[in-house]
Amino acid sequence: FKVNQKIEKNGFWKSNLMTNSLFIIFLSVFSVSNFSMESQSQAFREAQEKFEKKEYLLAMIAAQRVTDDEKKNSDFHHLYGLILVQLKQFSEASVHLKRAVDLDSTNAEFHYSLAAMLMQEQLETQALFGPNGMGMGKTNNETNEIIKLLQHTLKLDPEHLKARLHLGRTFHEQNMRNRAFQEFAKVAEKDPTYPWVHYHLATIQLDAGKLLEAIQSFQKEIQYHPNHGQARLELGDLLLQIGELNEALIQLQAADQENVSLLDLHYGLAKVYKELGQYKKAIEEIRQCLKLVSDVPIVHQLLAELYYQTGKTELGNRQMKIFQQLKNQITTSYTN
């Protein structure tokens, strides 16, 4: 029920409704590798503690007070780079994370952190300007750099599952589905309970038209991670497609509203209630969509269908007119 993706597939809408927050880049927790606890200054330890407590501004202030010798150490540059990433100071973070790699090229975590920073920066840029907007011209070069960094991370540490999952995701984004599937399969083989791995296997299976296999993968993801709301949304959509309406409703109702797009959730519920013949509930859900966004054509289209189903022709015509107007506006924006 990714409403923005469905709109894009139909050529109705050019921009995303929401940022790509479904797959969060979890930057590595800082770990000391070169300094013993005894040799760390109080400021260094304080910076590390504040970082782990997610008090990033205080962590940055503490890190700026470390000794000159510590500032020459790879651990300092790694920690300071991670702090700056959390403060969204990506350019300066890149300098420090690259310096950490230069100082200790055998540390897999340093390579991974630099790759994760580049991925996070890409997501932030897309959130601000859209997938094809300003600042996305260097995406291909950055993506190649991300792939190389993740591959080097795995060369140094083949058991780095987080890096392998991100490598698979990056391959998938580049339509390299076979290579992506191989990476996800390796993660699942090593740890079947690893978060998101069965979700991503399911998305590739969907691309290949393997609907039943995708359903099973989403079910596995939910089995291991019951609070995975996006997996429940996707599973609900597939169950709706094969006519398992009650099961689809169960999945959507169980989705954690804090971890999913509310627009997708309400839209999905509206579709299921419509198929169940519960038109009043369907209309209530689609109205919730309109409270979130009012310029999405397919939302008005579904509301029009629901009004027609309940004999409210005039209201249906009104919504269908809005649908056509929005559709025409978006079609025009594509041609300009």
How would you explain this protein's 3D organization?
It is a single chain. This protein is 70% helix and 0% strand. The longest helix is centred in the last third of the chain and has 23 residues, at 313-335. With 336 residues, the protein is an all-alpha fold. It is elongated. Helix 8 packs antiparallel against helix 9 (161-173) and helix 11 (197-207) packs antiparallel against helix 12 (211-224). The protein has helices at 3-9, 42-52, 56-63, 68-71, 74-86, 90-103, 108-129, 139-156, 161-173, 177-190, 197-207, 211-224, 229-241, 245-254, 262-275, 279-292, 297-309, 313-335.
Any descriptors?
mainly alpha; 0% strand; 18 helices
Biggest sheet character: none
| Structural class computed from helices and strand pairing | mainly alpha
Radius of gyration: 23 Å
Number of helices: 18
Mean pLDDT: 88
How would you summarize what this structure contains?
The chain is 70% helix and 0% strand. It is mostly helical and 336 residues long.
How are the SSEs placed, and which strands pair?
Blueprint: H1 3-9, H2 42-52, H3 56-63, H4 68-71, H5 74-86, H6 90-103, H7 108-129, H8 139-156, H9 161-173, H10 177-190, H11 197-207, H12 211-224, H13 229-241, H14 245-254, H15 262-275, H16 279-292, H17 297-309, H18 313-335
